[in-house]
Amino acid sequence: MRDARISISMVDFVDPYSEVQIRGRVLERRTDPELKCYDAMSEKYVGKPWPYRDEKSPIVLIIEVTKARFSKQPFEHTPPGAG
Questions:
Q1: How far apart are CA 65 and CA 6, in angstroms?
Q2: Can you tell me whether residue 50 is helix, strand or coil?
Q3: Which of 22, 56, 60, 81 could in theory staple to 8 by disulfide, Cβ–Cβ 3.0 to 4.6 A?
Q4: Above 80 in pLDDT, residue 36?
């Protein structure tokens, strides 16, 4: 792997003024041919096994987080038609 740095940014679907940013580096890259890690994450967050069983070369990245930041802008999100 040439560059192990990684950055992830996620915005809350319900409140787009809430965001989390995670930075780090990949320590390890593992194959997951039986989708054990995929199933565990899917079960935890959606309550059922990972639905895409035809993955050709599924991998799992082990990441060391070096910086994590949560931010919430001082605005209220009011979707169109919600009020």
A1: 9
A2: coil
A3: 22
A4: yes
